[in-house]
Amino acid sequence: MRVRPFVDTHFHLSWTARSLLELNLKECSTVECVLSKVREESERGGTYGGWVIGSLLHYKLAKAITKELLDEVSDKPVSIATRDGHMAVVNSKAIEISGVDCSYSGVECVEGVPTGRLYEDAMLLVRRKMPDPPIGKLVGAYKAVLDDLYSNGFLQIHAMTSRWLEWELVKSLNHKVHVIPYMRKEAFVKGSPGIKLFADGVLIYGTALMNGKGRKLIDERELSQWLIRGKEEGFRVAVHAMGDEAIDLVIRAYEMAGKPKRVLRIEHAAITRDDQLEYLASEGIEVSVQPGIMESVGVEEFKSILGPNWKRFMRVRDMIELGVKVYHGSDSPVGPWRLKEVFKYYKLLPKPVDDLETVLKLMSSGWEIHGERPSGELEVTDDLEVRVL
Ligand SMILES: [Zn+2]
Asked: Which protein residues have their CB within 5 A of the ion that is ligand 1?
């Protein structure tokens, strides 16, 4: 079958590339495994810059690891982040260097003392002090990720939560995969094609805004100001909104901003109501969905975390039927991005998207978001191998 080249509309390039250089904890299923890997890494002299930096940790293990356990296995500053990217566990050295204390929201504390677990925005406290990998290695890792994407049919990616340094490095690569950066708020520079903002947290930590709970990570006024600025300066505003109450918040901000066209897009839209989908359809607000995020938790466990909300999870089929402009993203490294694995997760949705044609359309239509025309074609075989023609 011949189709247009793929666009991954929600890809974390920096984080996917860095995870190739960091201590990879993806395969660990026990606390002992994590601790022994941290110990080895520390004895080797650390990951880089004198720190032990790990990633892709399963969130359940992160909840069982404390700063004290990390202190026992390393005398260097340690930060290990979960695969969902919304939590990290750090040791006492890292806490001390970063000035983490209980006055910041997102710093988990017991009796006024940080446990070492940092959620969402609080992770930035440590990230600001963490060393960057050597530039040459970082560029090599970007190239490896982009080469792999290209050979699997992706010719454009929207790189969420980018930073200025990365954008410059990626531009210098001049790669066949066109990278469109959506900058972190604190790294936003004039001339960037997009910004990524967060309305709430994630489903697995109960930080998504729904059922009257969760963490509100931006207020309506600030979000509406970004939307107005996006309209004036011509950049896109991508807002992470997991829970339906986060989507309510985004819609309020959109209305405060005077409903600017072709500025706002919503990332994830994991839990939605019918009235919201109808609104997004009528306003032409784009949505990027990532069924593959189930992989980072495990499908059965993910369902049990959601409970009765499972039937409202990522309603891609309903979105299509109601006329919402919906596009595929992987959220890599949270979810997988190769067609074969992606298709598996579309089929596992509560209302499965089980025909290949629809999935291919979701994967090839993201070109519209930045008004570009794809060049070239892909050949997709029956066993879902992809070749760029
Ligand atoms: Zn993401």
From this structure: 160, 331
